[in-house]
Amino acid sequence: MGNSTVLRTVAIWLLCLMLTIAAGALTVVVVNAKVYGPQQQVRDYFQALQNGEGSKALGLLRASLPEANAAMLDGAALKQSVAGVEDIRLGESVKTDATHVDVPVSYRINGTEHTTTFKMEKVGTNWLFFSRWSFVPSTLPTLEVQVVNETEASLNGMRVALPGGKGKFAAFYPGVFEAHYTSGNFAAPAVEAVVEDPETEAQISLATRPTPKLVDEATGQIKGFLDKCAEQKVLQPAGCPFSLPLDRVQNDTIDWDIVKYPTVSIEPYRGSWVVKPLTGTAKLKVVEIDLFTGAAVPRELEQQFDFAGRLNVDGDNVSLTPVVSY
Question: How is domain 29-139 classified at the architecture level of CATH?
Fold first, then answer.
């Protein structure tokens, strides 16, 4: 074998070695970026949220738990919180110093664009070549839920206790949280809040109101009370909010009629429910005797009257007790 042949063989061998080294280096770069890069940690975190795996998500995030209810941190409630986070897009990591990067994540909630930036830090290497990244430790944000005159609500499909009408819940981010309250007699429409990052201070306030069923029940009881008052064939019906003191009438002609029933309005007040003052109109048909001539004069007199009501709601039992002042 001549020198030229040897040199050619060595050159080919060196070229192959260089290509192998280059390919290996490229493989390290690709694997380092795709498998061990900071974005992969974020992908794993989002996957844990979507699977409802709260413990795994918490471990990946390296987050501390605040002093708050943990009901939203696992299972169906956790899955529900990320169900509305759509079109998730991971951006390129942005180096902030030698060992830290920011990873922006864009997404849509109800058609609105949002961005959450995850702070990552390099914590070592695997097999000498591959960087190991972790989330910078943080504390989970909280969501405060308040409800008027109730001690519970539904939050992301879960019934939660709200002692004294309020509660604080730890939350993963990003997440969408919807609360509402519904019962036979009172209800609060759904309110939504978005938690984007650890700095979010989210709050949901539920404005509980009487249901139409409750208002109809209370209205029916008031109408029944006034109708019974109108059945009394006297000028001053006992226990009733209307009367007309006339001098001389033909007793068998006294006829009361309610021409305008009160509109029942139930409002929250100092932790309970009260009925706003009630106003109605009664009409009296009567034959009056003229004191000077003795003539019988048919008359129709209307009187606007006011009274109060005391509301009591015990489960499905509703009572509205009229309170008449004399």
Answer: Roll (3.10)
The whole model's pTM is what? 0.81
b vs e for 260-270, b when ≥16 Cβ sit within 10 Å of the residue's Cβ?
eebebebeeee
Kindly state the tokens that stand for 259.
């021409």
Nearest by Cα to 49 from 82, 77, 72: 82
Quick one: tokens of 77? Answer: 């409630």
Query: What's the DSSP call for residue 77?
Result: H
**pLDDT tens-digit map of 60-95:** 999 999 999 999 999 999 999 999 999 999 999 999
With tokens 């998500």, the residue in question is: 57
- For residue 250, what are its two tokens? 């033909």
SS3 291: coil
Task: Give dist(CA 237, CA 233) in Å, integer.
Answer: 8
- Residue whose entry in the numeric block shows the structure tokens 């609060």: 188
Strand partners of residue 295: none
Q: Where are the alpha helices (DSSP H) in 158-292?
A: 212-231
Structure confidence at residue 316 as a pLDDT band (50, 70, 90): confident
Q: What is the pLDDT of residues 188-226, one digit of tens each?
A: 999 999 999 999 989 999 999 999 999 999 999 999 999
Question: For 142-208, which CATH superfamily applies?
Answer: Carboxypeptidase-like, regulatory domain (2.60.40.1120)
